Amino acid sequence: MIVEIGHIALIMALIVALVQATIPMIGAARGDGRLMAVASTAAGAQWVFIVIAFLSLMNAYVTSDFSVFNVASNSHSAKPMLYKIAGVWGNHEGSLVLWVLILATFGGAIVLFGGNLPPALRARVLSVQALIAVGFLSFSLFTSNPFERVFPAPLDGNGLNPLLQDPGLAFHPPFLYLGYVGFSVAFAFAIAALIEGRVDAAWARWVRPWTLIAWSFLTIGIALGSWWAYYELGWGGWWYWDPVENASFMPWLAGTALLHSAIVCEKRDALKAWTVLLAIVAFSLSLLGTFLVRSGVLTSVHAFATDPARGVFILGFLIFVVGGSLTLFAVRAPLLKAGGLFAPVSREGGIVLNNLLFSTAAATVLLGTLYPLFIDALGAGKVSVGPPYFNTVFIPLMAPLIVLAGIAPMLAWKRADLTGVIARIKIVAAVTVLVLLWSVYRAWGNAVFGAFGIGLSAWLASSVLFDWAVRIRLFRVSALDSLQRAIRIPRAAYGMSLAHFGVALLVAGVTASSAWRTEAIQVMRQGETISVAGFEFLFHGVVRAEGPNYTADRGHFTVTRAGGLVAELWPENRFYPVQQQPTTEAAIHTTWLSDLYVVVGDPDGQGGWSTRVYYNPLVPWIWLGAMVMALGGAVSLSDRRHRVGAPNRRRRRLMAGEPAAEVAR
Amino acid sequence: MNSRRLFYLLPVIVFGVLCAFLLRGLSLDPSTVPTALADKQVPVFDLPPLDSQTKGLASSDLVGEVALVNVFASWCLPCRVEHPFLMELADNGAFALHGVNYKDKPEDARAWLDELGDPFLRIGADQDGRAGIDLGVYGVPETFVIDRAGRIRYKHVGPITQSDLEKYLLPLIRKLSR
Amino acid sequence: MTRKKRRLYTLIGAMVLLSAATALVIGAFRDNLVFFFSPTEVAEKGIEVGQRIRMGGLVEEDSVIRDADGLTVHFRLTDLSHTIMVTYRGILPSLFREGQGVIVQGQLDAPTHFIADEIMAKHDENYMPPEVAEALKKSGQWKGGNE
């Protein structure tokens, strides 16, 4: 019964979304306040209906109601509760319900926090949001209904893919979707602005916090996915440039560009058409990602079970939404008035360069991801584009970006004095050179690449710290005075510093773990030791262990360094009888500076087990960096100016006329 | 001014090209496995009967008449779906329908046939999957169409559906039977 | 700084970046594209020794041999018309089994001997396209689980 209520709620949500997509749009065109007001009510109702639908599906999972086909094919009564809940979005149908739930939640948030939006803009934004909801709700109801019953009900379910039964992956999709779907708000604002034919500083001020939210969530989502790949796939790597990974990375790249260009749009009233285009592209790439993952156009270990009918549906929707909005852009964007002027060397100039680099990077990732498809479609054979391509192209694009991130925040708006800035950052340059020399000295073999990356990281980190020190006039005035200055710096500025510092951590982690990782593979017998990077791994053999829904061969290692105990590690090889599928569980000992990573493979039949041991220096910094970046987003979001929302239009215009007041960001 | 307009049109043009490829991509399957044995002679095999109630299947049994060889297993869910079609095809006179029981326990397979019916003239038991390898079986169910000369003319991957039957299998069988 | 001049600078900057990126991409594609072949194509097309390729096929039953070091594995990869000997050193993926389809990545060191540095195994003995799931629901045959 509850299941049927959920199904009806989903249908009701579709009907409400249809109303919300049309009536307020007409109202905004006619200037009819009553029709526009429908948007808020409808957005609220839509949210309530989708929450009902989502909860009833979750209820079916939690109570193991196998008369629901979706539950029967993706859950199992012996599964731990966490994975029963996470199982709701561990499959195509359920994840779509989560998707629309998040979309409706963002719609509700616009109603809740958008009280100060002009009524016409708000009505249009909510309408565009509802239009997207119509697409996804009908996709869910017509091609992938999660509430379908099966009769007679099976005794037990098929279970969830064991690879997905993991805490990291349980929370990966919600964060990822919060990011993907969050960009729909910026997208809706962009479309509304194009329809109105007006993009101004106030518009950018409304768009920026939403983009910031989406970007922070997407950052966390991608980091969780990468963390999962690191410890679950058992290969010691954290990024494989797999099509599904790329599908989430492309919107991130476009979203990062948008985040920066929106600042220029807000502070300087420039780059309007470009910002609007980026808002469209960021969400379009999210949709494209959805298409790639769910249509079976590209093969990937992460892809959902595929179905051509679904692919046709999403592609149709993609053409409608993206094609439509880009056409609207082509027609309306030339009418947008160009804004403030700036010299090439200026904060704006730096952000333009940042945008060019980020969009180029997104384009190369897109090209690499779709290249096998292009070749296949042209009948020229089957190819795969692997990590070497992406690394070759991506690193040269990212390196100048990091150099830029070290300088640009110190440049003044409009026109800056580059020589002055360079003269100022002597300390930063000195730190960078010192760290560079140190890392060359430490690792002569892979020095060039490794030292270069560590140097970049040091450059960015020290410039962030230096910038902060200059602002609070550290050591130039009394400590108390500095502290007061530190408190007065706007949170948005702290957010930026944190995010950039996070990038520095990430770069260090990526570089060190790629350049200086050591590994050893060996068949080991009980009592034997293997030595990696100065650590001794003593193998105590393998025992059989029982988990809640699997059996495992559990190895046991004692790790010592110079005689002192470092860690006990228990890597596992699990076997899930329900799915007849094995998984590898690496055992990882994490310190601030490195990971020790052990995997046990197959027995050789003579008492030995093939084992692989990695020493991954600085690898935890990758996820730490990503979390610091997301934290930066959150801190920036808590800035009073974002939180209060936008001031009214007149005051904005006044402030835009006084750039001097805004120099301190 | 005109060239500036073109600039704004660029994104939608790029997207159009992209969509053309994506549309094409939908009709391609990146994971298709080419049938290496297409139009080649059936590899030599000789499988023992499933049990005393059936006759075994050898490659020599496949010469002389058009035959459909269905690879099935009792543990295979989709096989259950296609089974009713096989039952319909059983006594048609146009071709022989044989089965290969793949990586299965004989008693399980017997119970399965008793429950759903036995449409096969001959059933070879391929317990260790070796003949399956020779035939290029990637999974179950798979169905091979074999002509009078004992050559593999078509391999159907996955369960047979009504439309597969009407679109590919029956026309081909008619052609081969002529 | 006039509007025109600014646009010119941006355009020049974008052009320089774009051409640099294009050069990078073309270079990277030339060096790093990995083509996919079947053992038959490898045997008949005469793939150059040392060229990085991917090859897909079935692991022939009873063909897996382990060296004394316990880590080096040899097996025959077949598409049933041609067979290529593959050598791999490392831990096999947990889904690697005889009789199963695998994809190997690496290079030939002799016309019929392949050195793999990566093995990808997939797990699909039981086809379950969506139409089948649909049909299962209708017929009420859904029992769940692979017995």
How would you characterize this protein structure?
The complex is a heterotrimer of chains A (about 675), B (about 180) and C (about 150). Chain A is built from 21 helices and eleven strands. Chain A is α+β, with helices and mostly antiparallel strands and about 675 residues long. In chain A, the strands form two sheets. In chain A, strands 3, 4, 5, 6, 7 and 8 form a six-stranded antiparallel beta sheet that branches. Chain A has a four-stranded antiparallel beta sheet with strand order 2-11-10-9, with helices on one face. Chain A starts with a helix and ends in a 9-residue tail after the last helix. Chain B has a single domain, classed as Glutaredoxin (3-Layer(aba) Sandwich). In chain B, strand 3, helix 2 and strand 4 form a beta-alpha-beta unit. Mean pLDDT of chain B is about 80; it is low at about 30-35. The longest helix of chain C is centred in the first third of the chain and has 30 residues, at about 5-30. A five-stranded mixed barrel of chain C has the order 2-4-5-7-6. In chain C, helix 2 links the parallel strand 1 (about 35) and strand 2. In chain C, about 30% of the residues lie in helices and about 35% in strands. Chains in contact: A-B, A-C, B-C. Strand 1 (about 380-385) of chain A pairs antiparallel with strand 1 (about 35) of chain C.
